[in-house]
Amino acid sequence: MTVSSGWLQVFRQDAVLAAIALLAGASGVLLASQYLEKRATDKSAELESRYASVPVVVAATDIAQGSVLQESSLAARRMPGAYLPADVIDVERAGDLPGKTTRIEIRRGTPILASAVQSTTAGTTLAATLAPSERALTISVDEISSHAGGLRIGDHVDLYHTRSVAGEAVLVPLLQHVQVLGVGSALREGTDESPDDFTDRRYATVTLRVSASDAPRLLLAQQAGQVALLLRAASDDALQPGRILRAAELLQPPRPPTQRVAPGMELLVGGAGSPTPERSWLRTGVAGQSGEAT
Fold first, then answer.
1. Residue 195: its pLDDT value, please?
2. Does CATH place domain 52-118 in 1.25.40.10?
3. Among 55, 76, 108, 207, which is most buried by a count of CB atoms within 10 Å?
């Protein structure tokens, strides 16, 4: 009886420990499941917030530069708001677009930006500021080429074309001392907003005054590569030498300055009481030196 009671007591202890282990395991599984479910919910909420879409106006078809916008050329599309430009047109302002003209070419499905369109009256006034041999050309810019939004109406810039040729970066000077007529939707004439109103605003286009012969070159440069703008000082009107630069030249050491040595001939002069004649050089083309002729 004593042995059977001892085994029964041991069995009961093992049963209690097993029950505790099972309970602990079940609790761990439940807690882990709740933790993973919460993590999944938080991650889903984070992704949903990051990629939350907003309805914006896009081009329903390819729209050429200078086209008048019609209702049939516009459409609404939901896009992630975090990745849209600051001046994108939302659907609530879509009614203001018909009748306006485009400053740049807009591809199908591309969001319509406020800086990419202008009113017809503003375009007419801008044309009145141009000479018969001049053109107003609008180009797309980003945060870097717009000098972090620092370009202002009346500034002058130099334009360079960058592209890759056989895997090597090439820099080609295009135009120098080009006047800025407009930044974004603010133009030189025909706008009620002054350049100071755009101090804290971002824009995606810059309008330039170019000659009629240079305009096609600039248009072609935009299609073939990238166009970079360098801001000039207000008092700087000097033209820099135009030379195509390649990336390989950055690794070449600077060339030392060359010194021109005038041609000459050696003279042996005797009669000074020494068995060894004196030696000197006679150079031509150099004046002001003893024993030398010019």
1. 44
2. no
3. 207
